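Notes to self after the call with IL:
- keep both proteins in one doc
- input above output, always
- annotate only the second one for now

Protein 1:
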Amino acid sequence: MANKNYYDILGVKKDAKAEDIKKAYRRLARKYHPDVNPNDKSAEEKFKEVQEAYDILSDEKKRKVFDRFGYYNDNLDPDSPFASGAGAGGAGGFDFSGFTWDTGSTGTSGGGSSFRDIFSDLFGGGGGTKREPEPPKPLPKKGRDIEIPLALSFEEAFSGLTTNITVNRSEQCSRCMGAGDTGGPVVSCPTCKGTGQVMKTGGRLQFSQVCADCEGSGRRRQPCSLCHGKGVTPKTEQVKIRIPAGVDTGSRVRIPKKGHGGRLGAEPGDLFILTNVGSHRFFTRKGDNIFVTIPITVPEATLGTKIEVPTVEGRAQLKIPPGTESGQKFRLRERGFPSLRNPNLRGDQFVEVQIKLPRIISEETKELLRTWEKANPENPRKAMGLE
């Protein structure tokens, strides 16, 4: 497999200064951070690659190894120049071309570099200790969103609602300003126990994820004593919310910047209200339209009349034409719910009439019905071939 070019990964030149490398790393880490790209495996791999490149190029000694041999082997044994995988010129050994042996004389032959000089550059004279890499600088991080369910009555969903709710959120830590530390000594990350990875559970599956607190390095500075390294502190707040007219069960109402606090000056997340609208004792809603069933008498259906029908906003007049049949529907225009997409539009209300027969019929009424039947002979089942 081809060796990685860490300069190309960070998009900097080979002679780039340490500050330029740091700027390039912070820009790319912010772009590919798993919190910014949730469930994006390609972004997560790119973030790891950027982290690896910065780990090598930000360390002066590691960078010298990479510049000399074209790659860096983390298992390189500083006490042995012949460690496995240490060379770039062959399998398991250094490429000696261009170098001369230093036999202890005051000079070198042919103007080449001596092995003693090389290992002095790489390992501080061969007797130094390996310097631990600095943990990555924390990056500005937008706060997480909050979702809160809210129960509404049928009428509140129709008219809209303005109210106050209690929100348990967080805000940027006032002591460390969201950094999570106050510049103390470097320690093993307490969140991931120095591994750089944390375990997540999704259903029956378990998988590892880059630790957000140390950004995968396994090390961080001593956490802030106020926020315990989180960069945010808890806060309980009364938030005024406005639920627009026309919401339905499952609607999401956004209140900007009232989610959890951001870090290092980043914006807070948003607050989302998830509405759950209750049922009505005689109205039924379908989309923006309202449906209701109204009983009418036999004379009203036969002779026609005007009746009052209920709407969410009060009563309305409805004309029943002569000969109305049970189950017939009438429309009251723009008596339905306001549209969430366009508040200037409204749905309709549909009224279905059901002919209600009297429970008790007197002998006098029965005689009138017999007389009416004789005067109006009709077989409503004739079309079905029934007598």
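Protein 2 (the one to annotate):
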Amino acid sequence: MTKKMRTALISLCIIIALGLSFIGGCTLDIFKPASNSNTTQNTNQELNLKLLEEAYQIILKEYVEPDKIDTQKMNEGILKGLVQGLNDPYSAYLTQEQYAMSVSDFAGQFEGIGAYVGSENGRVTVIAPIPDTPAAEAGIKSGDIILEVDGKTTIDMSVTEVVLLIRGPKGTPVKLTVLHKDDAEPVTLEIIRAEIKIPSVTLEMKGDYAHITITNFTERTDDELVSVLKTISDNKAKGIVLDLRSNPGGLLSTVIQVASHFLDKGVVVSVVYPDSSKDSDSVNPLAYKTSLPMVVLVDHYSASASEILAGALQDYKRALIAGEKTYGKGSVNQLLKLSDGSGIYITIARWVTPNGNLIEGNGIQPDTELDFETVDGVQWAIDYLLSEK
């Protein structure tokens, strides 16, 4: 498979929904097996594999209670340790059960508590609770650090591992110990999981201006957005406030489709691989277009696919980007299925904006900085669009 083909299949998501395994990932790629490379292994690799085999055999032969040896658990531990050794919060080993739960989570509907999470300063942190979900009703807030799940500490856990502990069937409880931002003491909240159904695009007309919010990029987002764009055209809207605040990302294919409604041509994003080769994804010239003036609102929790969209619109000067510096998730992830039905979610590349800006660890600097605690971002954007007429 060429790298170009791989790029079309990979996930660019940052953040994982609590209840959704990955808010991103490509359905076409979800069952893709890990490739078996024929490349000759170097001496160090052969030695490492030999050491693993030696340790495995020692345990089987020498452990004091051989009847208690669970080889399945041993295998899972080895694979988990291999991925943990990368020290990458967005790479993780998934058991067969976890992988099976992951493959059905790409349609914007899932069972869980309803929140997006990521890694910040080495801790698993809530990006945003989804409105009107168990998480929001229980008092989960943006910036909360998740310390424990059902009494298990999250120290040294990846984002994926924490998510998979939290998710579960609707109607079942889960206890989260969280530290609210600016609080000194943590609190423990019991939350009853539910089925979460969320539209990814919402519209609110503010007089002659359309306030469009995209919460994440799912399989349904493009259809939802086209419907909204046709509605505002019928309403003779004079401008768009595109709200990407707390948008954690999503599907690469979807964000390309979304960008194509606002841009006539050009590269939307380029993926750079470890060997310095690069693949680029461009605007669909046949997509439904709007030329209305735009302001894009972003905050610290706008991440991954939302950063791709904001970065492209900024580089082409198609919209003013206003708000806070974005999250800085510029890595590309892929979900690979292993032969036993388990899987590995692994970072495989970095992406850059059309102008070649690397976002990983840097984020997107807005054209105009806003403090959303003191400024109504939507009204500010409308006033800006009025002033530019």
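Annotation: The mean pLDDT is 85. The chain has three domains: 3-101, 110-197, 201-331+349-387.
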